[in-house]
Structure formats: C-alpha cells, structure tokens
Amino acid sequence: MDKELMKKVAGQEAVKYIKDGMTVGLGTGSTVKYLLDALGERVAKEGLRIIGVPTSNRSAKRARDLGIDVKSIDDVDHIDLTIDGADQIDENFQGIKGGGVAHLREKIVAINSDRNIWIVDATKMAKNLGSFPLPLEVTPYGSTHLFKRLDDMGYHPTFRTNAKGGHVLTHADNYIIDLNLGYIEHPHELETILNNMTGIVEHGLFLDVVDMVIVGYEDHSETFDAKRK
Ligand SMILES: O=C(CO)[C@H](O)[C@H](O)COP(=O)(O)O
C-alpha cells in the first residue's frame, strides 16, 4: 500500500475545486503538501489568482515558495473554501484533527470558511473515532493539574513530547495532551465536556464541520458529500 501516492491522488483531485479569484484556507500536513504542489502548478501555468490563508507556518512557507499569495486570516474579509487533511474520519464524516499540532488555527479557519473539504488517504476512514489519539491544545499554566483531571476521568492522557523529551509547542506556545480513548462512543457529548474544561484552548474533535471528503486510493479517488447522509 503506497500511502504517499494515496495522499497525492487526494490532493490532486481537491485542487480542481479551487477557482480563479477565490480566497482559500490552506490546511496543514503531508496530504496538504500535495495540494499545495498542485495549486502552485496551476498558479504558474494558468495564472490562477487566489489568496491562500495558511493554517500553519509550514504551509505558509511552502505556499510562498510555490508562488501562491498568502494572507493572514485577519487580513481577509471571508474565506470561500478551505482544504485540509484529517487524522481520522468516521462514517458520519466527523473528524479528529491535530496530529500535526495545528488544530487551533485549522478550526478557526474552518469555521470561518463558506465550505470545507478534507483530503485523506483511505487508511484514515474508520467506522468510529478514537483509535487515533485525540489532541488537546492546553495552556502550560496548570497543565499538570488538568492532566491529572483528565486521567481521573479515564481519558488516558499523554503529553506530546519531542525527540529531546521536551513538550511539543503549538503556534501559540501551548502544550499538546493526547487522549488515548480507543473508541469515542458519543463524540458530541465528549465535545461538550471538553469545551467546558478550563485550560483546554481547543480540542481536535471537528464535528459537523466538513462539507466534502475526498478519499485517495492508489489509482483513483472517491468524493463524498458529507452533508448529505
Ligand atoms: O490536523 C492536522 C494538523 O494539525 C492535519 O490535517 C492532520 O494531522 C493530517 O495530516 P497528514 O495529512 O500529514 O496525515
């Protein structure tokens, strides 16, 4: 199974939805990298005029390197379409994001977009959410106490660390706690609980957000209308 090829297929399919004059949210991750490559090619060949709103410093740099104009979300008045990756998508098109530490910006861009498309390789599709650990962006201040509370609640938290054993830091210099849940039976109930916990800046549950999902296989892609279930 060639996962890179599957990601590339999804990224190349998604670029077709970008039209001249659009303001486009640019997600983060290894699948979005293929979207950016394909978009850069269209900008160069077709003279496509778009404004990209990147969700991470990584995507901003790559977009600029490819000749794509980028602006901060606060410098645009609206976003027509956002294309982003995801870590896991269930059969109701609910998702987990944040494996790449960018879910706070990704969620802000997503909820301010007219439409959202997710691009994934086929291995990301699952019956239920939860086998992929659920990322939480948390404030460093008080994070050991928050960690203990999450542990007491049975959520099996782990701090995300780097190769040197230090905390992985987000764009806002916050920490990441991953919840090793295994199976999320009621995503909306969990969302409400996490929304109400002080110290959690944002969680990686993206519920009722996506409009279209493009799943890449090695030799074709499948497109799902996520709002028509
Ligand atoms: O949520 C994300 C970053 O925070 C990414 O969209 C997600 O991790 C998917 O990344 P990849 O395409 O590399 O698997």
TrEMBL record:
Q: Which reaction does it catalyse?
A: aldehydo-D-ribose 5-phosphate = D-ribulose 5-phosphate
What Gene Ontology molecular function terms does this protein carry? ribose-5-phosphate isomerase activity
Kindly identify the residues recorded as the active site.
E106
Q: Which GO terms describe its cellular component?
A: cytosol
Q: Cross-referenced Gene3D superfamilies, in alphabetical order?
A: 3.30.70.260, 3.40.50.1360
The Gene Ontology biological process terms listed for this entry are: D-ribose metabolic process; pentose-phosphate shunt, non-oxidative branch
Q: EC number(s) of the enzyme?
A: 5.3.1.6
Main EC class of this protein? isomerase
Q: Which biological pathway?
A: Carbohydrate degradation; pentose phosphate pathway; D-ribose 5-phosphate from D-ribulose 5-phosphate (non-oxidative stage): step 1/1
> What is this protein for, i.e. what is its function?
Catalyzes the reversible conversion of ribose-5-phosphate to ribulose 5-phosphate.
Family of this protein:
Belongs to the ribose 5-phosphate isomerase family.
- This protein is called what? Ribose-5-phosphate isomerase A
Give the organism, scientific name.
Apilactobacillus kunkeei EFB6
Q: Which gene encodes it?
A: rpiA
